[in-house]
From TrEMBL, chains A, B, C:
Protein name in the entry: Rieske (2Fe-2S) domain protein
Species, as recorded: Sphaerobacter thermophilus (strain ATCC 49802 / DSM 20745 / KCCM 41009 / NCIMB 13125 / S 6022)
UniProt KW Transmembrane helix keyword: no
GO molecular function: 2 iron, 2 sulfur cluster binding; iron ion binding; oxidoreductase activity
Domain of life of the source: Bacteria
Domain Rieske: 38-147
Pfam families according to UniProt: Rieske, Ring_hydroxyl_A
UniProt keyword annotation of Mitochondrion present: no
Cofactor(s) listed in the protein's UniProt record: Fe cation
Keyword terms: 2Fe-2S, Iron, Iron-sulfur, Metal-binding, Oxidoreductase
Length: 373, 373, 373
């Protein structure tokens, strides 16, 4: 049995199945892709005050992201330089002035410098300056924190802007949503039993929308035809729909600064390797992916709103949350169905992208290029 | 310590210990033995109607076994040819006419042909005939469904009949039990913490019967002497015993068509790689093994009866079930005790088969031959 | 980021991080270190009577330790020589005269000789003497049972005494505590999420004491200064402290036979590879380590007292237990904090030992030497 006669297909193929489950390939991705690129790890407004910190996992490393006394956010490997103890163990918290190791009390400034180490004051040979925390490149875009474990990474904008330009032809559309000024109204964390690339591939096509997303397809008719990136820059809402809620209505005004064409329009785009942005008139949804293993992915989904609207009495984000949470769960189920067959002999050479999905292959080629690099 | 002085033994040896726990050997077995031979995966009467299906796991593949509109049972890899989604996710169920993928709605006939794929009607280059479900060889014997993942497997009978002929010298004895006409009166699924081969080896010898199976040994005296295959074709019940129940009695008549010599007789045999058949006058017990990992095995045990007897008011299979369930659990405990030492240095070269067990070595050699092949 | 500028340090370094998490290195340690050295597995007074036994895990082997009719403790691989079944399955128990396999009833004497095997009486070719249980070297020191899986290990004293002599310069101090005469008043088993070597390294230094152990440092002032092995043979209690309890007091008299200088003194030492001994005036605390995996270690901690004192009405060990249990838990937390970063790129070359910790490097070199051997 099992003679694969599909090699004659004229269509692009996905990556071979092993790319979606093989632990060795996962390790290579962690090292060469997530361990080198700028990767989004959270939001800058999660640590508003000096001394506020996050601990995040990136490519196998625990990274401490902390706002300094000067207001600048910096990142360091969360590792004491003495005997290697983990310094901060909570997902987020606040330190007052210094980061002190609990094992032998070596202490570091918020800028990473070694401030003191007991019993070493009189040891001439000890070079305190050489024993500060090891820095990790840290930058921000649209209110998001991005880290790079690369030795000398290029500027963050060099990674993000070309993707926006390819998608929109300009930077102005995204700019009108002033992402850095928005605030989180609600957040949901999902754990998916699938490889992270299946989630990216799912987000990039709408061939499945008519089948998997009846509510979304009613709200955005071009999705029903499977058109995602092919119908122009934005996708227009159906007649009478003003918001991506189950009712199609909302009491929230459009975000400040939007243009006429943004009303009644949905824009979605991917910031590789791990962010999806969904722009709608009254709110923005940002997905952030964290690969947890070859067949396990965490997705943190934030619903963002105008802080002025959030401050109004009676503000309730749940109509927006209910809609995209439904769409999310529909997608996760499909991603997990695919994962189950990634090790099948039927998928050794991968599957097909039909013409409506052909653009996804560029993402696969991007991954291959990173792995070779 | 630990000088093994037993190398001078004149006895046959088991396989070296690593064959019972090494993940690499397990993978080879999955690929070369369970991935090539005909393997029993269930019963044909579990899917009596067109559209009824089973999903079964075989050598790492999910296989969809479905009865067609023509009544023929066919098997396919349970993998959509488009993006690889798992098609049917329940262990068993019914589809009405077509198998449709939930991701992008590609749909397949019960014979595996691709019936339709959205948005591809006008794509000339798309060869629909080349994108049917990938077939898996499927056949039946004695009411059991057997699959083979081999490219071009020999007929099922070529695998099964030589084993029966070696055991019985003819096919008639087994034939008298008309296995395909019997029905399941009760079924128990066991999960054992041991390698599947220990279960086969346990079934093949009765040297342990006097120690491990006092009830069975009372009912079948030759077992108490450790004689399994060595005492002639069948093993006679003790004086006054008419059925393998705890009381030795039963209200069930003998199965229709049995010969005089079958009454008061137990016949056991193995259909490699994964079926044990136990023929008794009024019922048949069939064990089916599913290796789940190097040290984990599922055993599905079915108690089969004459459907005419089952239809009678007051039919109760539990006297038969209680007996062999007790024997089963006694065996599983022994198999698991052995498993615990398979990685010991004491078992690096394997253990011994005493003369009463010497025939088991043929099974070990069969496994080695499959692994080489 | 992440340029390690610490290579210029004049300090000794720990082992590279991989030594604390790599499964391959763990396997090598199990084979070459724990599989060859004398390793402590428990206490001899746990099996006081002939026929009493322990089953213990050592370097992947289940070992049966049993007291013979002659009162001698012997050890054997817990493996039936026939088909490999585990013989004794309880952690401890009693057998009456013979050890019988439950599978086929082969039976062995308490001295390991094969006493009988069913159906083999008349098999001339079977050499019963060659099929006794495989012996494991077994000896005792200070009431502790030690095993060696080595083929022909040196005497136990050759492994233990040099360590005591290096630490004390003589054997008399330890001898005064008559360890073999003491009895267990309380025992706690801990499971730590860290490599066993981190636990050894933690025990060997007191640089962390001031930070991690405020109670201990108050009781033993030299510990507050980080002095463990550097302040002379024993560490003196603070003024007014007579026992290592939270109050510093106790109703227990000193152990019989101690010298004047032992009162108010704490002596700690390591018996590699897996025992820590803590001598205090009125009780002794013994830690025994069992590596369970690359990042998992069991520690069994026994509090030992004079049996005559234990026999007195109202004996209560819990003041002593509370103190060292607190110290233990403080230590385990630090060991686990270190474990979390052992795979970090910041620890690829290991961490530093400051001068107060420099002596630990000898332990690391001992491990490396074992791995090479």
């Amino acid at each position: 049995m099992v003679t694969d006669t599909s090699t004659a297909t004229p269509f692009a193929t996905t990556l071979p199945g092993r790319y979606y489950h093989d632990p060795d390939i996962y390790r290579q991705e962690q090292e060469r892709l997530f361990g080198r690129l700028w990767v989004c790890v959270g939001r800058a407004d999660a640590i508003p005050q000096p001394g506020d910190y996050l601990t995040v996992d990136l490519a196998g490393e625990s990274v401490l992201v902390v706002r300094g006394r000067d207001g600048v956010v910096r990142a360091f490997l969360n590792v004491c330089r003495h005997r290697g103890a983990r310094l901060c163990t909570e997902p987020c918290g606040h330190v007052a002035g210094a980061i002190q190791c609990r094992y032998h009390a070596w202490s570091y400034g918020l800028d990473g410098r070694l401030l003191g180490a007991p019993n070493l004051r009189d040891v001439d040979a000890f070079d305190r300056d050489a024993h500060g925390l090891l820095p990790v490149a840290c930058d921000q875009w649209g209110g998001l924190l991005w880290l790079s474990l690369a030795e000398d990474p290029p500027p963050l904008a060099e990674q993000l802007e070309p993707a926006i330009l390819r998608r929109f032809g300009e930077l102005d559309t995204v700019g009108r949503y002033r992402l850095a000024t928005l605030a989180v109204g609600h957040s949901i964390t999902y754990e998916l039993a699938c490889n992270w690339k299946l989630v990216v591939e799912n987000f990039m096509e709408c061939y499945h929308c008519a089948v998997t997303h009846p509510e979304l397809s009613r709200a955005v008719p071009s999705f029903k035809a499977g058109l995602a990136y092919q119908q122009g820059v934005g996708a227009r809402f159906a007649e009478g729909v003003v918001a991506l809620t189950l009712s199609g209505q909302t009491t929230r005004p459009p975000l400040p600064g939007l243009a006429e064409q943004d009303l009644g329009t949905y824009y979605g785009f991917v910031l590789l390797p791990n962010v999806f942005v969904n722009l709608t008139p009254d709110h923005v949804v940002v997905h952030r992916l964290e690969p947890l293993g070859p067949t396990q992915t965490r997705v943190v989904c934030d619903w963002l709103f105008d802080p002025a609207v959030m401050a109004e009495p009676g503000f309730d984000p749940m109509d927006a949350v209910a809609f995209f949470d439904l769409v999310n769960r529909q997608d996760w189920e499909m991603c997990e169905l695919c994962q189950q067959n990634m090790a099948s002999r039927a998928y050794r050479a991968g599957g097909l992208y039909v013409p409506l999905e052909a653009h996804i292959r560029a993402f696969n080629d991007f991954v291959l290029e990173c792995l070779e690099g």
